[in-house]
Design brief:
The structure holds three protein chains of three kinds. In chain A, helix 2 links the parallel strand 5 and strand 6. By secondary structure, chain A is of the alpha/beta class. The two termini of chain A are 29 Å apart. Chain A has a single domain, classed as Pyruvate-ferredoxin oxidoreductase, PFOR, domain III (Pyruvate-ferredoxin Oxidoreductase, domain 3). Chain B is of the alpha/beta class. Chain B folds into two domains: 242 residues, Thiamin diphosphate (ThDP)-binding fold, Pyr/PP domains (Rossmann fold); 136 residues, Rossmann fold (3-Layer(aba) Sandwich), CATH 3.40.50.920. In chain B, helix 1 crosses helix 2 and helix 1 packs parallel to helix 7. Chain B is globular. The model of chain B has no long low-confidence stretch (mean pLDDT 97). Chain C is an alpha+beta fold. In chain C, the strands form two sheets. Chain C has a two-stranded antiparallel ribbon with strand order 1-4. A two-stranded antiparallel ribbon of chain C has the order 2-3. Chain C is elongated. The chains are: A alpha/beta, B alpha/beta, C alpha+beta. At the A-B interface, helix 1 and strand 2 of A face strand 1, strand 8 and helix 10 of B. Chain A: This is pyruvate synthase. Chain A: InterPro entries: Oxidoreductase_gamma_subunit, PorC_KorC, Pyrv/ketoisovalerate_OxRed_cat, Pyrv_flavodox_OxRed_cen. Chain A: Keywords: Oxidoreductase, Pyruvate.
Chain lengths: 183, 387, 86
């Protein structure tokens, strides 16, 4: 079983990201579970969401304390939230920032991948909503969900032009990260 | 199977039961259930009278009135909302109306908390409602369909609460098999009460009962609860035949064969416990599915070979101990000897229950097994540094 | 009678239960003073004041509890209370 913790701010779609990835993973033939760090929803406040993906039905209902992956949707959380807490050795941190992993200078026995998701989202979707772009990055970096499933689920969730734009943003992020580049 | 939110799964099950009247007042974390149902009605997917009300007291009163005219009625609430329904809960059970509600578990104020524990429904334990506590989203969905069959059977005629942990089950997305309308129709016949209000045959429900009759009405409720024991079992078996899913009858055991330590609990914590217990050879879990009627004989039978029993719950009675702990001890007294019982209270007001908390409880139980009983009950996960 | 579940009872039990026996005073009427305002009929809590063309205002003593509201409300002071003789 693999565990992901998503950090973001209220209104950035962190909970939706966990949910869509759960549906996508299930469509790939795996079991999945997604849930938020339950709180009173406030736009802009730091929030967390969790995702578990496994080959067996998932029974455990605790929050995720030792994630395999951490995804940070908003670089302004650096210094505010301890998003590296519990991240496994050899785990992966995926963070939305214009900086390179070296520039971030994060200490730990985990890999860091950076992506400038805000720029991609603004350019393709027209709004700085990064959750779908980050999903594309997650699919490329971890291989836990397939690109096609993520795109299919997003298109079902957001119909028409909005769905198409989000799908393009996902694909752009996927291609960039699959090539090993930081954007 | 599809991945859906817990609240959606519950609303879907309600829809398949074809209620005539739904009345509920939105309150976190029950809100998504009611929103989904309102959407079904607005979209024409569910033909039903959806009655918006000014409070939970009114919501349950509407359900009461609807049930009395022979309608299948549904409501849902949690915490403060359930507390505000209190007097109507007793009216519904006293009038023997088979209203079914989803009681989402949330802490009671004060301090103000919107998060999960089980104080609210445990407090409603004595209200004359059948109480079934569910372990996961699939069971929350399935138990709802079972509940109407149990509640509406002529030999029972009691209201039923399906108790599900707020947020932990209502707001989680996981794979669920959603019932088909047709298979639900085959399983659940239309409500056919013996007595109902109609202008052709006027009746009074819940009449004035003087001291020469009141006790008898209460005794009849007790007898109905006794019959509900068998009905819950029967319906669980029939549900398994129809849908292929089973969660136990009044209880369900895991790893009980040869278990020296048994964890007794109800609700969603069982999922986390199962993950821990699969690595522990001599530790089993006893899930209390039906809290009322209480599975007295089943608990005795399931625990007769254990050496230490740890009762784990998210509620407590200030000035004594956890309510489930008291009930389990009472059921065993006079019947099972050489058994040490420990009570643990955790997860109050949404405190997350990490696997280590369960491991700690097992450790404590081992110490008692080796060295005998010292502390009978305790809080787990207390933050000593801020006390 | 065996009890029904839910304290469910047939209606109309007040017809069977003749509450007139509770009375210590009873109303009488002086028809020459009655102006047919019917306040007595409107105010009677037990619907025990009746009227017919032939008899004018009369009382159903099976259900009149003798509260005296009719006498109190009577516009023409036609209704008055007397001690019940038993």
């Amino acid at each position: 079983m693999k565990e992901l913790r998503i950090h973001g701010r209220g209104g950035q779609g962190s909970v939706t990201a966990a949910e869509i990835l759960a549906v996508a993973a299930f469509r790939d033939g795996k079991f999945s579970q997604a849930f938020p760090a339950f709180g009173a929803e406030r736009r802009g406040a730091p929030v967390m969401a969790f995702l578990r993906i496994g080959d067996e039905p998932i029974k455990i209902r605790s929050q995720v304390y030792e994630p395999d992956y951490v995804m940070v949707q908003d670089a302004t959380l650096i210094g505010i939230v301890d998003f590296m807490k519990g991240l496994k050795e050899d785990g992966i941190l995926i963070i939305n920032t214009p900086k390179s992993p070296d520039e971030l200078g994060l200490d730990g026995n985990f890999r860091v991948r950076t992506i400038n998701a805000t720029v991609i989202a603004k350019e393709i979707i027209g709004r700085p909503i990064v959750n779908t772009t980050m999903m594309g990055a997650f699919a490329a970096v971890t291989g836990e969900v397939s690109l096609n499933s993520v795109i299919d689920v997003v298109k079902e969730r957001f119909s028409g032009e909005v769905g198409e734009k989000n799908a393009r943003a996902i694909r752009r992020a996927y291609d960039l990260m699959a090539k090993g580049e930081s954007s | 199977m599809e991945v859906v939110e817990g609240s959606y799964a519950v609303a879907h099950a309600v829809k398949c039961c074809r209620p005539h009247v739904i009345s509920a007042y939105p309150i976190t974390p029950q809100t998504h259930i009611v929103e989904n149902l309102a959407q079904f009605v607005a979209d024409g997917e569910l033909e039903c009278e959806f009655v918006p009300v000014d409070s939970e007291h009114s919501a349950m009163s509407v359900a009461l009135g609807a049930s009395a005219v022979g309608a299948r009625a549904y409501s849902a609430s949690t915490s403060q909302g359930l507390a505000l329904m209190w007097e109507v809960l007793y009216n519904v059970s006293g009038m023997r109306l088979p209203v079914v509600m989803t009681a989402v578990n949330r802490a009671l104020s004060a301090p103000l908390s919107i998060w999960n524990d089980q104080q609210d429904t445990v407090g409603a334990r004595d209200s004359g409602w059948i109480q079934i506590y569910v372990e996961d989203i699939q069971e929350a969905h399935d138990a709802l369909i079972q509940a109407y069959r149990i509640a509406e059977s002529r030999e029972v005629m009691l209201p039923a609460m399906i108790c599900m942990d707020g947020f932990i089950l209502t707001h989680t997305y996981e794979p669920v098999v959603l019932a088909e309308q047709e298979e639900t129709d085959d399983f659940l016949p239309p409500y056919d009460p013996e007595y109902y209000l109609t202008v052709e045959r006027p009746l009074s429900f819940g009449c004035f009962a003087e001291p020469d009759k009141f006790m008898e009405f209460r005794y009849m409720q007790h007898e109905a609860m006794e019959r509900a024991r068998f009905k819950i079992k029967e319906v669980a078996d029939e549900f398994e035949r129809a849908f292929g899913r089973y969660y136990g009858d009044l209880i369900q055991g895991y790893n009980l064969d040869g278990a020296q330590i048994v964890l007794v609990t109800f609700g969603s914590i069982i999922g986390t416990m199962k993950e821990i217990v699969k690595h522990e050879k001599d530790v089993g879990i006893l899930k209390i599915r039906s809290y009322r009627p209480f599975p007295v004989k089943e608990v005795r039978e399931a625990l007769k070979d254990a050496r230490v029993v740890a009762v784990v719950e998210k509620d407590f009675s200030a000035g004594f101990e956890g309510a489930l702990f008291s009930d389990v001890k009472a059921a065993l007294y006079n019947h099972v000897s050489d058994l040490k019982l420990l009570g643990f209270v955790l997860g109050l007001g949404g405190r997350d229950i990490p696997p280590e908390d369960i491991s700690k409880i097992i450790e404590r139980s081992r110490v008692v097994m080796d060295q005998g009983l010292k502390e009978e009950w305790e809080f787990i996960g207390l933050r000593g540094e801020i006390l | 009678m065996k009890l029904r579940i839910g304290a469910i009872a047939d209606p109309g039990t007040s017809i069977v239960n003749r509450t007139g026996g509770w009375r210590s005073e009873k109303p009488l009427i002086d028809h020459s003073l009655c102006i047919r305002c019917f306040n007595c009929i409107l105010y009677c809590p037990d619907s025990a004041v009746k009227y017919s063309e032939k008899e004018g205002i009369y009382f159903d003593y099976d259900f009149c509890k003798g509260c005296g509201i009719c006498a109190n409300e009577c516009s023409g002071r036609a209704i008055y209370m007397v001690m019940e003789e038993k």
